[in-house]
Amino acid sequence: MRGRIRKFFRWRKQNDMVKVSCLFALVAAAAFASVCCHVWDIYVYADTPAEYVLVGEGSVSNKRVDELRQMEGVEWVSRQMDETIQVKFGGVSSEVGCTGLSQQYIAGMPGMEVSEGEAEFDGTKKIYMNEAAFSTWKQAVSEKGGDVSELEAGGPEFEIRYSGVGDAVEDGDTREPGSGDMVGAGKTGSSGSGEMAGSGEMAGAGDAKGLSSGETAGEGDSMMAGDSPGPSGIRQWKTAKLVVIEGGAMDEEEGGCGFSCMVETDSRLLKEAYLLRVRFRNHDLDGLQVKALRDLGYEIQNEGVLIKEEYEIKGKLLHIQYGLTLCAACVIAAWVIGRLICCWHK
Predict the structure, then answer these.
(1) Between the CA of residue 195 and those of 191, 200, 203, 218, 219, what are the distances in Å?
(2) In terms of pTM, does the model score above 0.90?
């Protein structure tokens, strides 16, 4: 073996064809390594769950949900409703597009931990954001003059205030006096900062639709510029936890876009949801999942993400095809040159 190695180095110094043969061998190795990387990427993609947001004709009936659950490869199905909520942190509120899903569906998403009772509008509400959505929201808070130093330090959980379309003021919803919840936009008491409204300055029953006496005006949660009150002219703020999902699970499912979601009550989903969200255990590379959903009469709302993923996969397959061709050509060229060199030295 040592003799052959010495002979090879001697030929390399004497003949430039040996160097050319080595160059072809290195190119073949690099092309093969590139092919292996693209094959691995496609394997990982095919092994991850696929999510589709569906729009159908008519209401989202139980029959439609059961029909999707019986499809081959389906893991979870949920009614979906999208709304814009106000999320407040450090006295600054900003609009966030949020997706309401069932508790079972969110619990099955990678990196999620959903506790019992979280589907209720109580103090344990959680709003989940992937890193892209969290970055966008953090920037919006900063642009409005909010202090984002705590957000910059990481979490992944932050206590926030939130207000949404479904958070109508209900009887029995009480909070501690002086908690800093100001309600209304001009009918909540004195305009001075730091003074709690007296009994004559509190929002009346006609203005607040049964607002409990525990909700008094304070300096913490006044109506901000851009806040849109509900039908009664009053916005109700509730405490929640903002949970940042790290690790890319939600980013991959949403194609790297910002995505925020929260557990929604089954009753509200049943009444107001007009979308369906279905998760398959794996992506398919032949488009059978999309074809089956379209055969059932659904339009795919997140088709843009699917088209982007399809182009990426086609690009990787093209790289694999040309990589294998280049690798084979270089191996053949190196072998032919090597045989010619051996013949010359005989």
Answers:
(1) 8, 13, 15, 7, 7
(2) no
